[in-house]
């Protein structure tokens, strides 16, 4: 007999692990909708899932926060059922050969700062900011960054009075050493500044491909943490960010200038990166590095030759300056995937505007872009089989 959760969900295969517990694919028995199911043995020494579920409830409704569908006990397990999300940023980083473009990093940074700021606004610290804990959505939310895994989160202020927790020292390292702030390594109680410094290390990891304190060998975990700490302290901000826009060094200088109980000015940090984004001439079109890679892989099979169109002759279509010379169809498909079709195998056809008006909307269609007299119609594989 197949495992059931709360008489409502069917347990499927294992798809990952969190800081505490294993994560499985699940299915809503009534709707057939897929969900994520996190399991934690009730006999575990330090149970965390009930605590994590309560934090998710507090954060519910925030952009980039997955919805909790159910929490309870089934047999020997505490169970948390949530929205199923897409790949983590670590997965996508690996998919892109372990380096991301400046444009992709800046588009991610804007959303990631927003997520951290929202968690802080609800009086919590995340305390384990790393690429594995940021996931992309699925379907129409494929461009949205989600933050997950609140097993190590901590309340940093009283919800009513906003009284901040006291400054303390001699604290053990909580989180992931690779992305931990310098103050965390030094044993200082974490506060809002530390989540943001950790986020800075994540952004540099994406840009550089690695961080200077990766790959250090040590006999014990404690010794490894000490080596990482020494290397991190010895690496100046300028050395870490050398060869990259000065905004990244400015980000770190700002985070490290904050006092323990200061409220970070996240608007300033987002503005730093948005100004850089504009100066570089990028377009916030949600075409990430992996969007292009996924599309190119889907086209490797047997694509018929197509004429190359100069996009500069199409004033009605907004496009990034570096796309001139690609096929018009390819560009529009990038945009299609960026607007919620990530991971689908798009099929397409050109239809006159008049014909579109006559036929009306069909479920599953999404209008992507307009070229003179035509629109591009794109739909996912589940409809393409029917229409081809």
Can you describe what's shown?
The chain is an alpha+beta fold. Among the domains are: 11-24 and 36-83, 2-Layer Sandwich (Phosphorylase Kinase, domain 1), CATH 3.30.200; 87-295, Transferase(Phosphotransferase) domain 1 (Transferase(Phosphotransferase), domain 1), CATH 1.10.510.10. It has helices spanning 49-59, 89-95, 102-121, 182-185, 192-208, 221-234, 237-241, 246-257, 266-279, 289-299, 328-341, 353-359, 381-387; strands at residues 4-5, 9-17, 22-28, 34-41, 68-74, 77-83, 124-125, 134-136, 145-147, 154-155, 347-352, 366-371, 374-379. The strands form four sheets. It has a six-stranded antiparallel sheet, with helices on one face. Strand 1 (4-5) and strand 2 (9-17) form a beta hairpin. The longest helix is centred in the first third of the chain and has 20 residues, at 102-121. The radius of gyration is 23 Å and the shape is globular. The model is unreliable at 306-326 and 341-388 (pLDDT under 50).
Task: Considering the chains and any ligands shown, give keywords for the structure.
alpha+beta, Phosphorylase Kinase, domain 1, 13 helices, Transferase(Phosphotransferase), domain 1, three-stranded antiparallel β-sheet, 388 residues, serine/threonine-protein kinase, single chain, six-stranded antiparallel β-sheet, transferase
């Amino acid at each position: 007999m197949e495992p059931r959760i709360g008489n409502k969900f069917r347990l499927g295969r294992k798809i990952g692990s969190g800081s505490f517990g294993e994560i499985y694919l699940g299915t809503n028995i009534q709707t057939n909708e897929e969900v994520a199911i996190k399991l934690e043995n009730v006999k575990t020494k330090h149970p965390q899932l009930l605590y994590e579920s309560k934090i998710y409830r507090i954060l519910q409704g925030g952009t980039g926060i997955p919805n909790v569908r159910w929490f309870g006990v089934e047999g020997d397990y505490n169970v948390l059922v949530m929205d199923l999300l897409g790949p983590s940023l670590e997965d996508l980083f690996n998919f892109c050969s372990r380096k991301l473009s400046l444009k992709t990093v800046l588009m991610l940074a804007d959303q990631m700062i927003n997520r951290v700021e929202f968690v802080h606004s609800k009086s919590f610290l995340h305390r384990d900011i790393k690429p594995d804990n940021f996931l992309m959505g699925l379907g129409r939310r494929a461009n949205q960054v989600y933050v997950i895994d609140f097993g190590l989160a901590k309340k940093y202020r009283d919800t009513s009075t906003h009284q901040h927790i006291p400054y303390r020292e001699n604290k053990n390292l909580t989180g992931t050493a690779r992305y931990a702030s310098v103050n965390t390594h030094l044993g200082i109680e974490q506060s809002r500044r530390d989540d943001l410094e950790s986020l800075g290390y994540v952004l540099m990891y994406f840009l550089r491909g690695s961080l200077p304190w990766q790959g250090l060998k040590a006999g014990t975990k404690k010794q490894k943490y000490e080596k990482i700490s020494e290397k991190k302290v010895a690496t100046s901000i300028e050395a870490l960010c050398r060869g990259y826009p000065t905004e990244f060094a400015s980000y770190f200088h700002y985070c490290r200038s904050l006092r323990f109980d200061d409220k970070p000015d996240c608007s300033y940090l987002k503005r730093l990166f948005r100004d850089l984004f504009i100066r570089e001439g990028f377009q916030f079109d949600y075409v990430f590095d992996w969007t292009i890679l996924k599309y190119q892989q889907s086209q490797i099979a047997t694509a018929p030759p197509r004429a190359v169109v100069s996009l500069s002759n199409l004033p009605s279509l907004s496009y990034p300056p570096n796309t001139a010379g690609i096929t018009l169809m390819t560009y529009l498909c990038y945009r299609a995937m960026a607007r919620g079709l990530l991971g689908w195998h798009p099929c397409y056809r050109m239809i006159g505007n008049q014909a579109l008006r006559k036929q009306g909307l069909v479920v599953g269609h999404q209008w992507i872009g307009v070229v003179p007299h035509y629109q591009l119609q794109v739909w996912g594989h589940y409809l393409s089989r029917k229409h081809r």
